[in-house]
Design a protein that fits this description.
The chain is α/β, with parallel strands linked by helices and 199 residues long. The chain has a domain of 128 residues. 27% of the residues lie in helices and 24% in strands. The protein contains 2 helices and 7 strands, in the order βααββββββ. Helix 1 packs antiparallel against helix 2. The chain is globular.
C-alpha cells in the first residue's frame, strides 16, 4: 500500500525581505506552528495507517483456522456436540472479522498523552473501532488500542484536558480525529478534529 504524500504549505512572502526572516531565526507565528504540527502529525498518521493495514493483511493471510489439536482433550463428536471446537471456530471467525475491519479502517483517532509523574516523553495512542486483534504492538513508536478499552476514553478529551484512566492521570498533548479511506492502495482521511496543542 502507498500513502498520500503530505507536502508542507510554505507561505508566499508578502515582500522581498520576508524570505530572509527564516534565516534570522524568527519564531514562527501561531498559524505557521499549527501548520507544521498538522503536517508532521499527518505524515505520522498516514505511515501508521499503512503499517497497521499491512500487519492486519499479513495476519489475515495466515492459516485461517485454529487447530483443535491444541485442546488437551478434544471431544468425541460421536458422543455429543463439539463445544470446545465450536468455541475455537467462533473465536477464529471473530478475529478474522476484526482483521478485515482493520484493513479497511485501521484506526480513527490519534492522541498524545503526557502521563503525570512518568518522567517520560508523551506516549502516542491510535484508536481503532474494532478489536485490535492482537496487533497492539504493530507500531514501533505508538500503541494501537481499541476504542472500547479503558484507554479508549483518552480519545474523548480535547488537547489540554486532563484525563484519568485506571488511576493514571495525564494531560492530552495532541488529539486528531479523522475518517480514513483507502483508494487504490493510497490512504487519505477527512479530519474531524484537527491536531491541536493546549493553549
Amino acid at each position: 500500500m502507498q500513502t498520500r504524500e503530505v507536502k508542507p504549505v510554505v507561505p508566499i512572502p508578502a515582500q522581498q525581505g520576508a524570505a530572509d526572516a527564516s534565516a534570522k531565526n524568527v519564531s514562527p507565528t501561531g498559524d505557521e506552528e499549527l501548520e507544521r504540527i498538522s503536517v508532521e502529525v499527518g505524515e505520522q498518521i498516514f505511515a501508521a495507517l499503512r503499517t497497521v493495514a499491512q500487519a492486519a493483511q499479513t495476519e489475515l493471510s495466515r492459516s485461517d483456522a485454529i487447530s483443535t489439536n491444541t485442546l488437551v482433550r478434544p471431544t468425541n463428536s460421536m458422543v455429543g456436540p463439539a463445544r470446545p471446537e465450536g468455541n475455537l471456530g467462533a473465536i477464529s471467525t471473530a478475529v478474522r472479522d476484526d482483521l478485515r475491519r482493520l484493513i479497511r479502517e485501521p484506526f480513527v483517532a490519534r492522541v498524545e498523552v503526557d502521563w503525570e509523574g512518568s518522567g517520560k516523553q508523551a506516549e502516542t495512542y491510535y484508536f481503532s473501532r474494532p478489536s485490535v486483534a492482537g496487533l497492539g504492538r504493530a507500531l514501533t513508536d505508538a500503541k494501537l488500542v481499541t476504542s472500547r478499552a479503558d484507554l479508549g476514553r483518552l480519545a474523548e478529551h480535547e488537547a489540554g484536558d486532563t484525563a484519568v484512566v485506571k488511576g493514571r492521570e495525564g494531560i492530552i498533548v495532541k488529539r486528531s480525529v479523522f475518517s480514513p479511506t483507502s483508494r487504490d492502495a493510497v490512504w487519505d482521511g477527512r479530519v474531524a478534529a484537527r491536531p491541536r496543542r493546549p493553549a
